Amino acid sequence: MEGIPHPIPRTVEEVFNDFKGRRAGLIKALTQDVEKFYQQCDPEKENLCLYGLPNETWEVNLPVEEVPPELPEPALGINFARDGMQEKDWLSLVAVHSDSWLLSVAFYFGARFGFGKSERKRLFQMINDVPTVFEVVTGAVKQAKEQSATPHNNSSKNKSNARMTCRDSMPKGVKVSAPKDEDESGEEEEEEDEQGAALCGACGDNYATDEFWICCDICERWFHGKCVKITPAKAEHIKHYKCPSCSNKRARV
Known about the structure:
Layout: H1 12-30, H2 34-40, E1 49-52, E2 58-61, H3 87-112, H4 117-128, H5 133-138, H6 143-146, H7 155-161, H8 185-197, E3 213-215, E4 222-224, H9 232-235, H10 244-252
Antiparallel strand pairs: 1-2, 3-4
């Protein structure tokens, strides 16, 4: 339940910004803060829900008591399934229900404030342009496959050099090569598409050439340096980088 009041979105842009904030909070809970999230979902407690908040934070709490609730409620009792399945499967299940909840909240606002057909369509298109929580949590986006193709040099050297500069921190699926002849223009377009599909494993946002990125040596997902609190200076001293999710998993083993 949301203890802090947030402005009620009334336009398509405001509803989408609300959606993005809640989505960012949910992704953070299921990736960066997965250890904390796991501990809060104690099966011995009552029915618990995972809430994403508009300010990009999250909380695990009991459902609201009022009936009907002011907003659609997330999946109830996520904590009961925690110890009955593999952790990655449990996180994937929570992610799927989180996506359903995000859509229900967004279109609840649309219905409440009388969005017409064109406004509903525009809202859905804006939402559909970003990866789902499930895609980010499971790595179902193209990112994992693209990272398996390393450009030109030895993969180990490329991965180390990728942490040094914004240009060299491009995900492995983004190919850097010499200028192409005119008859190879089709290949260049495919490479541009691959660049657009590179996504941060923490926030799910697209790759940008002016941002520092770092690759996890365990799961091979790429992250914004700011999302995992790694600067280019810190990266110079890291031989093998492990993202927060991989670090937490190994700590529990």
